[in-house]
Amino acid sequence: MSLNTLEEIAAFIVSNGKGILAADESNPTCGKRFDSIGVESSEANRRDYREMLFRSSGMKDNIGGVILFDETIRQDAKDGTSLVQVISDQGALPGIKVDQGLKPLDGSPEETLTQGLEGLHDRCSEYFQLGAKFTKWRAVIKIDGELPTSDCIESNMQALAEYAKIVQDNNMVPMVEPEVLMDGDHSIDRCYEVSSAALKSLFAAMETRGVNIKGTILKPNMVTAGSLCESQASIAEVAEMTLRCLKENVPSDLPGITFLSGGQSDLNSTAHLDAMNKIGGFPWKLSFSYGRALQQAALKSWLGKIENMPSAQAALSHRALMNKLAAQGAWSSDLEG
């Protein structure tokens, strides 16, 4: 694949309905997932699990990029091939999570600010040498009563913009992830209001810093009611509200928007994406960057056993295809079998 510019890389990742497999769980998060199936979270087991995902036949044509954790981008498959090469051989681009997690926000300790700007230039330089073509940084915005504060939104969006510029200076595409959490009992209207404020702040900060929007990917939440809200919105309402929020706040020259699943079920993640693409009428590619919503069925099939690998790979391949169809507005629940 001869992709020379940031614009070409960003466009490739979301071309023809392709999306992103988020396999960048930190070791503690991966440990929790492995605990749920009774598997020890050793380096070898994490490697075997991710290699199994990356070698699934459904990676081809459905997955345009894979986000990796620092450990994974340095690992080799069992046969000695680097995992970066395994991903490339499937026609996908390797990416890397570069933020360093959350710390309490000064003056509002219930909120967080994402860490990792210190030393980021040097880390990016190394990751580029290791083969990464794009990167990810996650900001977390919590809705709770009067929260979020404007300081939380502004501080996190400024950090996202600074990150994006550093990444582009190192010849990689930045994925910017301003996640408004589903946790809580807030309404879909409140999520819309906060998501709009975050996106408005983010793109203003990126413009100020001279970030190339055509060489950037946005990874936002969908506009939904909080998970504890008694009044949950329909698939159609989530699709309509999310599209309205994006159209009002996202520049038209951004190449792709790859949603996070954010705690939605596998099927809802797919159904919402499909509903948006069936509505249409927007300038960007609308696709997916799912972790749990792509992996969960595979994880439950695998259970750490070699003999379960074919069924686990089939589960991942099915979800990848379903989400590609959703990114093309061509999915229906009848295809789920």
Can you describe what's shown?
This protein starts with 5 loop residues before the first helix and ends in a 10-residue tail after the last helix. The model has no long low-confidence stretch (mean pLDDT 97). Helices cover 45% and strands 16% of the residues. Strand 4 and strand 5 form a beta hairpin. The chain is built from 12 helices and 10 strands. The longest helix is centred in the middle third of the chain and has 21 residues, at 188-208. Helix 10 (266-279) packs parallel to helix 12. It has a single domain, classed as TIM Barrel, CATH 3.20.20. Strands 1-2-3-6-7-8-9-10 form an 8-stranded parallel barrel, surrounded by 7 helices. A two-stranded antiparallel sheet has the order 4-5. The radius of gyration is 19 Å and the shape is globular. With 337 residues, it is of the alpha/beta class.
